[in-house]
Amino acid sequence: MTRIRGSHQIQWLDALHRHHAVVEDQVKTNKAMGLHNLPSKSWQVNEAWMLTANLAADLDAWLRLLTLHDQDDLADAEPDTMRLRLYHLPARLAKHARRRWLRIERTWPGADAFILAWQRLANLPAVT
Fold first, then answer.
1. What is the pTM of this model?
2. 25 near 78, Cβ under 8 Å?
3. What is the C-alpha to C-alpha distance for residues 30 and 40, in angstroms, rounded to an integer?
4. Among 3-7, 67-71, 115-119, whose mean pLDDT is lowest?
5. Is 31's pLDDT higher than 70?
6. pLDDT over 70 (residue 54)
7. Torsion of CA 80, 85, 90, 91, to 10 degrees
8. Residue 53, class by beta-carbon neighbours within 10 Å (0-12 exposed, 13-18 middle, 19+ buried)?
């Protein structure tokens, strides 16, 4: 068995275990985003489900990174919290004068966070 030089040092072990904890957190997040219930015995269907669950986890992470980075309660929130506070939006989509309006219930606890995220997403510079 060959050893990695410096692998017996506490700093190396600490870095290794911290990296492993990050990986475990990501697996837990992906399971919460739908990876825990693969729906089929078919390889192709499970592959598509896995890609979809990973895409949902990535979109959740980017949303928090780009729009909710300064919101203490949502910046590092679990997927269930994000789902409850932000994604399950009690609102109505209405049309008036050839425009669409999203009418959000103001008494909903996540209304301010949703509006802030929406405004920050709308103000992002266009990709060139």
1. 0.71
2. no
3. 18
4. 3-7
5. yes
6. yes
7. -120
8. buried
